[in-house]
Amino acid sequence: MYLLGRFKFSTPITYLLLSFLFLFFSALSAYNITDVLSKYPDFSTFNDYLTKTRICNQINEHRILTVLAVNNAAMSSLDGKSVDVINKVIRIHVFLDYLTLNKFKSLPTSLTTQVTTLLESPDQQRYLNITNGDSVSIVSAAGSAEVEVVRDISPDEIYMTSVVQVSDVIMPSSLSISPSPSPSSPSPSPSPSPSPLSSPSPSPSPSSAPSPSPPPSSSSGPYDITNVLNDNSDFNLFSTYLTQTQVANQINERKTMTIFAVNNGAMASLVDKPMEIKKKVLSLHVLMDYYTVQSFHNLPSAQSIRINTLFQVTDNPSGQLGFVNVTNGNSISVVAAAGSDQATVVRDVSNNKTNYISVVQISNLLLPSELTASSSNPGKSRSATPVKAPSSSIAAAPKLGDAPAQSPTAAAPAPHSSARASTNSLLTIIFLSALSLTSVMLI
């Protein structure tokens, strides 16, 4: 205090220093879902279950999440349920996307949007289906009563975590008929999630499949999409563009993703496009969820499912540009939600169960005309040598109920720990810069 008292600071400089310090210490405080909900007494029961099941820890460690909060009155439907059922139901109310009330209402009215929850489940229980109509309704993909989106509670664009109230508990019918022993005091300590390394391979390649690349063993090192694709020379051009556009870096920093890879011949229509167009198109080929050929077959038959992509997350494009529609039929077809030539899922290329990142080959590029309209020289050959989906690979994938894959979502670590580390490093630099500025003025 004596040292500071010897110097007089101008008011603007003082405000600047205080602003730096406030920014530094405010941003370093981590997201805390229980603190957020503690401001709303109507959600105290829901908040209590988040804490007792320790699901709050997963929420705090992740980014790009939406929490569907239920008020105390509606939570009474969980009274008497077992710890296991409560744990599963609460996980269903957290999904891997950032949606606010306005974003819910901007979803297309003609399609069902499917999102992936934190529930670890081998079947459709892990998914929610969202429909936008006169109101926004949500049901479990495994079947449940319909609930409605009520209001925003706490959207947080810094941590990309949204808390939205829904009208009732989403209770899949398969869980509602489960035995319901009444725990004397619900202090659910969730069963430890099975190690991803011991989980069965979600999509074993059948011997009849045409030279599929077997999923590599999980590695303790960081994930590197270019190294994965280097083992498959058919994807050299796709891998090169991932590196040049830096989309590869975004993939390597995240978890729980699916990359739609396209072979060299089918990449011809992208060769003469500007780098910015290449980046957007490649980002559209990265799904913000984990799928294999088998799990695509587990989707509802003959129903188009809209899936979020990296393009939507990073660029927030207008309309439907950031989404793809997947339909499960005799084959798995994929189109850009904004309109494109139809592609077909061909085979599993790679399946990393540590980071839950899979690479799945599709027959041709998803190239929305809206993205390439500004390009001065549109691609001339969209299908130079597009591959056809081998029937044996698709047919061999088991249908719903045949040894389905185990959902990785709940066991997956925080998807953006590296991003948080980078943010904290930047804030540390800002803080040190502020201290340096103070030292200069003192001198």
TrEMBL record:
Biased composition (Low complexity): 389-418
Domain of life: Eukaryota
One Pfam family recorded for the sequence: Fasciclin
Gene3D superfamilies xrefs: FAS1 domain
GO cellular component, one term: plasma membrane
Keyword terms, alphabetized: Cell membrane, Glycoprotein, GPI-anchor, Lipoprotein, Membrane, Signal
Similarity comment: family membership: Belongs to the fasciclin-like AGP family.
UniProt-recorded name of the protein: Fasciclin-like arabinogalactan protein 10
